[in-house]
Structures are given as structure tokens and as C-alpha cells.
Write a structure and sequence with these properties.
Strand content: 15-25%
Shape: elongated
Largest sheet: 5 strands, mixed
Distance between the termini: 36 Å
Strand order of the largest sheet: 1-4-5-2-3
Number of domains: 2
Number of helices: 7
């Protein structure tokens, strides 16, 4: 089926579990397929925008709810990514405490390994949530292949694995309508951290 969206939408569609728990952001086309196949129902639409095919017309979904409940473990083991790492640390250097907005022109945020990678038998073993922190390029270069104590730096945070909610929603671009559902399910403190 060929679908045409009258006005392109840059935001995706928020998919809710059958229990109204926010699950994931989907492309609009995938959300439409789920609704048309009867596997999801439309909860909220993107204003007056519509999707048309040869025989059907429906509103562009902003929020859908799955018809059947999907089990999601509360604590998901995921690899460390810079996007989630920087969000976990509030886009702030774990050593000097400067926010990314306060960095000089040629400085940027980097991933730093508290215990350097060179001290691990396999380099991949160093990439754990409790061994990685956000560092500005200046502090990371100063620390080099040493521990913070060896480099004369103080670690301002205790690195831990972020909770499921923060892994999923800390870096999402949500519309105010979609944010309302995340706030209703997880609380205002999670929504404020987004």
C-alpha cells in the first residue's frame, strides 16, 4: 500500500504498551502499519495531518497503544554509547564540572575510562557503565592513560548504570503531547530530566 502524508512530520510516533507504559519512538509509517494491521490503536494524532492511500485516510499518529501487552525487563543491559553516557552525566565533565555549553571553541565532550583501557586484557572489558564517564577533551588529555588519582584529578560523580527510563527517554525528542504520556507514567522528575 502506498501512503502519502499531506505534510511531512519530523517527529516519530510514541508507542505505548497495552498498560500505557511508553515503550519506544517509531517512524510514522511503522505506526500506521501497526494500526492498520489491528496490532495497535490510535490514541493521539498530529493535529489535522492525514495519511492517504488509494482506499483509506487516517490521521497521522502521534501516540499509539499496542493491543497486546509486551513484556519489557526493568533493567536492560545495553552497551555504553556516548549519547546515553553524556545524557546520564548531564552533559558535564566528571572532572572539572564544566557543562558542554561552557567549553571553549576547540573543546568537546569525550568518553573517559576511569580505569584506563590499557589496563584491561581485552579492551572491550573497559566499556562498562561503572568505568565510563563524560570528560571534556582537556581533562581527558590531561588524564591520558592514568587513573584519576595518578593524574591529580578528582572524580565528581560515581559512575553507575542508568535505569531503563533514562536509557530510553533521556535523548528522545518528544513533542509536548508525547511528553505528557511519559510524565503520566514515569512521573514529572523523569520528564524534567529529558
Amino acid at each position: 500500500m502506498q501512503m502519502t502524508i499531506t505534510r511531512p512530520t519530523r517527529t516519530g510516533c510514541l508507542a505505548l504498551n497495552a498498560s500505557y507504559e511508553p515503550l519506544v519512538m517509531l517512524p510514522v509509517q511503522r505506526a500506521v502499519r501497526l494500526v492498520m494491521e489491528g496490532r495497535a490503536e490510535l490514541v493521539e494524532a498530529h493535529g489535522t495531518r492525514v495519511i492517504r492511500s488509494a482506499g483509506r485516510e487516517m490521521p497521522v499518529p502521534a501516540v499509539i497503544r499496542l493491543v497486546r501487552y509486551v513484556y519489557v525487563p526493568r533493567r536492560m543491559r545495553r552497551g555504553v554509547t556516548n549519547t546515553i553516557l553524556f545524557a546520564r552525566d548531564g552533559y558535564t565533565c566528571a572532572y572539572c564540572g564544566r557543562h558542554r555549553d561552557g567549553l571553549r571553541a576547540r573543546e568537546f565532550l569525550t568518553r573517559d575510562h576511569v580505569l584506563p583501557q590499557c589496563r584491561f586484557t581485552r579492551r572491550g572489558d573497559a566499556n562498562t557503565w561503572d568505568n565510563c564517564v563524560t570528560a571534556c577533551s582537556t581533562c581527558n588529555n590531561r588524564k591520558a592513560d592514568r587513573t584519576p588519582a595518578e593524574a591529580g584529578l578528582t572524580l565528581r560523580i560515581t559512575p553507575t548504570e542508568p535505569q531503563f527510563v533514562h536509557l530510553e527517554w533521556s535523548v528522545r525528542r518528544l513533542t509536548p503531547l508525547q511528553r505528557k504520556y511519559v510524565t503520566q507514567f514515569f512521573g514529572a522528575d523523569v520528564a524534567n530530566a529529558l
